[in-house]
Amino acid sequence: MRLNHESILPLIRAAFWLLAAFVAAMAWLPVRNPALTEQHPDKTNHIAAFLVLSIVLYHARYVSVYQAAMALFGYGIFIEAVQQMLPYRSFSTGDILANGIGILGGYLIVGTGRLITAALSRI
Question: What's the CA dihedral at 110, 103, 42, 24 to 10 degrees?
Answer without folding.
Answer: -110
